[in-house]
Amino acid sequence: MDLEYFFELFLGGLTRGSIYALIALGYTMVYGIVELINFAHGEIYMIGAFTGLIVAGLLTLLGWPALAILVIASIAAMIYSCAYGWTMEKIAYKPLRKAPRLSALISAIGMSLFLQNYVLLAQTPDFLPFPNLIPEFDFLEPIEHIARSSEILIYAVTAVVMVTLTLLIKFTRMGKAMRATSQDREMAMLVGVNVNRVISMTFILGSATAALGGVLIASHIGQINYYIGFLAGIKAFVAAVLGGIGSMPGAVIGSLVLGWSESFFTGYISSDYEDVFAFLFLVVILIFRPSGILGRKESDKV
Amino acid sequence: MSEISEHKILFGWEEIKKSLLTCIWFMFLTFPIMVIQVNTIHRTVEWRWERLFFVGAGAFLLSFLWRYMIRRKEAGIKREETAQNTHQDLLQRLLSNPRFSRPALAVAVLFFLTFPLVFSLYQIDIMTTALIYVVVALGLNIVVGLAGLLDLGYVAFFAVGAYTYALLNVHFQLGFWICLPIGGALGFLFGVLLGFPVLRLRGDYLAIVTLGFGEIIRLVLENWNEFSFGPSGIANIPRPGFMGMDLALHQNHTYIYYLMVGLTVFTIFVVRRLQDSRIGRAWTALREDEIACQAMGINKTRTKLSAFAIGATWAGMGGVVFAAKTTFINPASFTIWESVIILCCVVLGGMGSIIGVVAGALVLKLLPEYFRAFSEYRMLVFGTVLVLMMVFRPSGLISSVRRVYRFEGRNKLEGQP
Amino acid sequence: MKAVLTVTQLTKTFGGLHALDGVDLTIGRNEIVALIGPNGAGKTTLFNCLTGVYIPTGGSVEITSPEGHTTRLNGLKPDKVTSLGMARTFQNIRLFQNMTVLENVMIGRHCRMHAGIPGAILRNARTRREEKAVIDDSYRILENFQLDRYVNEFAKNLPYGAQRRLEIARAMATEPFLLLLDEPAAGMNAQETKDLDDLIVRLRNKEEISILLIEHDMKLVTSLSDRIFVVDYGRKIAEGTPAEVCCNPVVIKAYLGEEIDA
C-alpha cells in the first residue's frame, strides 16, 4: 500500500517535472543566448494554453474526434505562442540589448503583467474548464488508478521534444549558430552569424515547447486561468537554475528534481505549504548553488 | 533639413507599408484571444469581431509612433555621445531654477496643507493612500534607484509593518504611536535578515530571490492561521488616537492625512540627506561599478545591506500606517504585483530622483481613482508603463541630477583649513 | 632599502591552469617597479591576487606601511586591502560613469571618512566638517591632476586621457603608500604618454609612494622604472634595472621574441 502511494507520488512528480522541463527549456535557451531572465515566459505558456482551449472548444462544438482536436489545438497553440514570443522579443527586449541587464528584466516584468491582464480582460478572470482531449489507452487499464494516459502522453511528448531539440541544436546550421552566439555574441556576429535571427529563433523554439506544455497540462488538470503562467514560470525558472542555467540537459534534470521534490513534499509532509516549498527551494538554490548542477561558474571580468 | 527628411521617412509609402504589415500581424496575433470566447460548459461561442477593427486601427497608428520614437531614441544616443555638457530637459531646468521651484514648492505645500479643508472625506482617503505609496516608493527608491538593487519582494516589508501593528494590537493592545517605530525597526531587522544571505548575488538573481522571499512571507501569512489569522486577515484595527482621545470619523481621517503628510516630509528630508552623504555616494558608486567600488575601499556587503535595510524600514512604517488607515489587512494585499506597482512608481518617476518618485507615485495612485474607466485597465497600463519606460526613457520622467559643486577659485580654498 | 610589498611564492591556479606559479617580488619604499611580459603572462592575475580580487592558491602577500606595520593580505577583501594603503587602477577604465568627476574622487576618500547613517541624517557638526574637508581635498587632488576644469562634468564625458588621469587621481584619494597601475598608457598618444610619465614621476617624488605598474610601452617603462620585473607563463623570468633586462637574452626571446629578428 505504501509502495503504491510512493509510486503515485513518483509519477506525479514525473508529470510535474516534465511540464516544468517543457517551460524551463525556453528559459534556459533564452538565458544562454541573451542573458535575460525572460520573466514573461510563463505567460507565453499561459497564452499557449488559452489558444489551445479556444481552438479545442471550437472543434469540440463541431464534433471532431478528440485526438484530432488535440493535435490541431497543440499546433495552433504552438503557432500562436511562437508569434507572441517573437513579437515580445521585438517590442520589449530587442531595443534593450545594449541596456543594463536590470532594465531588460524590468521590461520583462512589465511584459508579464501586460500579458496576464490582457488575457484577463480579453477572456475572463475565472477558471475555464479545459476539455479532456486525451483518450484513455486500453493497455493502461491495469495501472489506471496510478497513471492516467494523459500522464503517459506528457512523458512521451517531453522525451520527444527533448531529443528533437538536442538534435536540432547539435546538428543543424541554426543550432550551430545558436551555440556560437551563446558563447560569444560579438564574435559570432563577426564570423557572419545573423544574431537577430538566432535570437528570434531561440524565442520561437522556447515558446513552442512552452505552448506544448500548456496544452498538455491544461488537458491533464482540466482547467486554466490567466494566472497559471506566473507560478509555472517561476518554478520552471527554479528548475533551470537548479540544472545550471544555459544548459539544456540541466534544465531537464533540474525540472525532474524539482517535480519529485515537490511531489514528495506535498505527499508526505504538508500540502498547505506546497508553494512555500517551491519558493524555499528557489531561495536556497540561488543562494547556495547559483551555478546549478551542470552550469559553469560565472564571474565578472576584471 | 533633417526635420524635413524625418517627416518624409515618417509618412512615405515604405512607412505605410510597414504599418500595414504591423496592423495585419497584430490582428492575426490577437485574433483568438480577443475575438473568440468559447464557453465549454454551455457549449456556446461568442465572436467579437468589432474588437479586431480596434486592434488593427490601433496597431496601424501606434506603429508609426513606435518607429518615430525608436528613431528619436537612436538619434538621442548619438547626441549624448558627442555632447560635452549633460543634457537636461525643460522640466529639469525649471525645477533647478529657484525662481520657479520656490513658488512651485510653496504652492505644493499650501495645496497639501489645505487639502482636507477643501475636499471631501473620500478625497482625503484617496490622497492618504497615495501618500502611503509615496513614502513606500521613496523607500524602494533607495534600494532600486540609488543602490541599483532590484528588490521584487519589497512589499513583504510593507506586510511586516502592517502585521506588526495589527498583531501587537490584537495581542497586547499596543497603540499606533508605539507600533510605528516598532514597525520601522522590524522592517529594518527583516531587511538585514533577508538581505544578508542574498546580497552577494548578481543583480537579476537578486531580483528573483527577493521575489521568492516576498512570496514566502505572504504564503506563510496565508497558511499559518494560529499566527496571522490566515487568509481572512485581521479586522477592526484601531485608527490612531490623538493624545488619548477618540476622534470622530471625519476628524480621524483628517488626522491620518496630516500624519501621512508629516511622514512624507520626514521621508523626503531623510532620503535627501542620505543621498547627499558619504553613504549615499557609496550606494550610487556601487550601482555604477561594484569592482571599482571595492577597489576604492567600500565594503560591498555592508553598503548594500544598509540600502536594503533602510529601504525596508520605510516599507515597515508605511505598512503600520496602511493597517491603521484601512483597519483591515489580509495577505492578499501583499502579492508580488504590489511590489511591481511600487517599482512602477519608481521607474515612471525616475530612479534615484526624489521629486520624480513622488510624482510617479501620486500619478499612478491617483489616476485610477479619478478615471474609473482607467481603473479597469490599471494593471495593463502598469505593465505597459514598465516596458515603455525601459525602452524609451530608462531614467524616468524626471531623471535624477547629480549635485553640482561650486568653487570660487584657488585662493579661497587655500585659505581654509 | 625597506620593502613595502613582499610577495613570496605566490601561486594561483584556475582549474588545472597555473596562472601564477611561485612568483617572488619585492618593492622598496619610494620605488617604481614595472611588471612586463607577453599577453596572458599573468600580470593582471598578479594584480588581482595582490588586491584581493582573487584569493591566491598559495604563497603570501605582505605589505609594510611607512609606520612599519606589516600585514598579510592573503584572503582579505579588496576594500580592506585599499584601506590598508594599496590602491589600484584598471586596465579597462572603470570610472563611475554617471557620477561627476569630483564625486569620483570623493568616493576615493570614502575609506578615510567616518560618517555613518546617523551622521548623514542628523548632519551634525562633525559630519559637516568632514564633508567640507572631503570636498576641498578632492578639489585639490583634481587640481594636482589638472582635472579641476572638469569638476562637475560626468566622468563618461571626459576625453580618454583625462579619464585615465582621473582613475589615478581617484586611486590617490585613498591615500595609498603603494599604487598599482594596470596599463596606464594604453591607448594614449605620444604626448599623453609623455605627460603620464611626468605625472608618475611627480607622484613618486611629491607623495613619496611606491608604484608598481604593468605597461607595454617599453619607452615609458625604461624611462620610468627603477627596476623591471619580467613574467612569462606565470613565472618570473628576469628582474633587474632597465638596462639589464633589455639585454637579457631570455627576456628578448620570451617577450620581444621574433620581432627583434624581423
Quick structural gist:
The complex is a heterotrimer of chains A (302), B (417) and C (262). Chain A is mostly helical.
Describe this structure in words.
The complex is a heterotrimer of chains A (302), B (417) and C (262). By secondary structure, chain A is mainly α. Chain A contains eleven helices and two strands, in the order ααααβααααβααα. In chain A, helix 2 crosses helix 9 (228-243). Chain A has a two-stranded antiparallel ribbon with strand order 1-2. Chain A has one domain (15-134, 141-238). Chain B is 75% helix and 2% strand. Chain B has helices at residues 2-11, 13-35, 49-82, 90-96, 98-118, 121-146, 155-172, 176-198, 203-223, 225-228, 249-275, 278-288, 290-295, 300-326, 336-349, 354-370, 372-376, 378-392, 410-414, and strands at residues 36-39, 44-47. In chain B, strands 1-2 form a two-stranded antiparallel sheet. Residues 82-86 and 410-417 of chain B have low confidence and may be disordered. Chain B has two domains: 2-81, no CATH class; 112-392, ABC transporter involved in vitamin B12 uptake, BtuC, CATH 1.10.3470. With 417 residues, chain B is an all-alpha fold. Chain C is of the alpha/beta class. Chain C folds into two domains: 1-85 and 176-262, Rossmann fold (3-Layer(aba) Sandwich); 96-174, no CATH class. Helices cover 40% and strands 24% of the residues of chain C. Chain C is built from eleven helices and ten strands. In chain C, the strands form two sheets. Chain C has a six-stranded mixed β-sheet, sandwiched between helices. In chain C, strands 2-1-4-5 form a four-stranded antiparallel β-sheet, covered by helices on one side. In chain C, helix 3 (101-109) runs parallel beside helix 6. Chain C is globular, with a radius of gyration of 19 Å. Chain C starts with a strand and ends with a helix. The model of chain C has no long low-confidence stretch (mean pLDDT 86). The chains are: A mainly alpha (302), B mainly alpha (417), C alpha/beta (262). At the A-B interface, helix 2, helix 3, helix 4, strand 1 and helix 9 of A face helix 2, strand 1, helix 3, helix 9 and helix 15 of B.
